[in-house]
Amino acid sequence: MTRTTNRTVLRLTGADRTEFLQGLITNDIKGLSDGMIYAAMLTPQGKYLADFFLVAEGDAILLDVHSSLAPGLTQRLNMYKLRADVQISATDIEPARGLSEAPEGAFPDPRHPKMGWRAYDGRPSEEEDFDAVRVAHVIPETGIELTPDSYILEVGFERLHGVDFRKGCYVGQEVTARMKHKTELRKGLVQVSITGTAPVGSEITADGKSVGNLFTQSGGQAIAYLRFDRAKGEMTAGDAKVTWSA
């Protein structure tokens, strides 16, 4: 049994905390009444800044984010709060997670039923192969598939219940809505078959042209970011062979 060590939990308090977050995040904060929600913050240009989980804790909201993003996210939240009655503080909570059915006191992972549960009460995590489940269901991870160049619809946020198109305005909403309603996605994350291995981030090529990048790999499958019109036939990533069935 191990503890999750690469996550930071922030606590937001103050009378304006709910309204404050509602104007910034991609999902509808009202979902907290039903349990955990998954969401992101974007740049004004609609690109990814951070993804995180939110849960209600009495008169506070806990925000579970990858530790590498926590300082920048805290700074960004403080920049936006202006005169709002919101306080943002780091905690020493270590999130736990597992792939079994959610035990009492834990929250089902909202991204996909197969992603199990998360908890914030000091219990240990379960030893599981989370990468295998992520690859099987094309679930991106902070700092691997999710980067500052990501647009959330290209990395599957609608499928992962991380964006709400009815909630109203938030930072980056205009670009996200335009991608949803006025364009057809030409790039995105998909599952590919792979023979051999290649470093995470390796360029994928076909007929000498770049078609995307290879990311998490498990059991002969991988998550890849592809340009759909070029991703045909046999592709390569380093010494590995890659195939995709559209």
Distance between the termini: 39 Å
Note the main sheet.
Answer: 6 strands, antiparallel, barrel
Element pattern in H and E: EHEEEHEEEEHHEEEEEE
Q: Give the tally of β-strands.
A: 14
Helix content: 10-25%
Helix/strand class? alpha+beta
Please state roughly what percent of the residues sit in beta strands, choosing from under 5%, 5-15%, 15-25%, 25-35%, 35-45% or over 45%.
25-35%
Estimate the global geometry from the Cα principal axes: globular
Provide mean pLDDT, rounded: 95
Parts with pLDDT < 50 across at least 5 consecutive residues: none
Question: Multimeric state of these chains?
Answer: single chain
Radius of gyration: 19 Å
How many helices does DSSP assign? 4
Strand order within the widest beta sheet: 9-12-11-10-13-14
Please give a quick description of this structure.
This protein has 246 residues and is an alpha+beta fold.
Describe this entry's structure for a reader.
The structure is a single chain. The model has no long low-confidence stretch (mean pLDDT 95). Helix content is 14%, strand content 32%. The chain contains 4 helices and 14 strands. It has helices at 17-22, 70-81, 130-137, 173-181; strands at 7-13, 37-42, 48-57, 60-66, 87-90, 96-98, 107-108, 117-119, 187-195, 203-206, 209-218, 221-227, 235-237, 240-243. The chain has a 6-stranded antiparallel β-barrel with strand order 9-12-11-10-13-14. A 5-stranded antiparallel beta sheet has the order 2-3-4-1-5, with helices on one face. Strand 11 and strand 12 (221-227) form a beta hairpin. It is α+β, with helices and mostly antiparallel strands. It starts with 6 loop residues before the first strand and ends with a strand. The chain is globular and about 60 Å long.
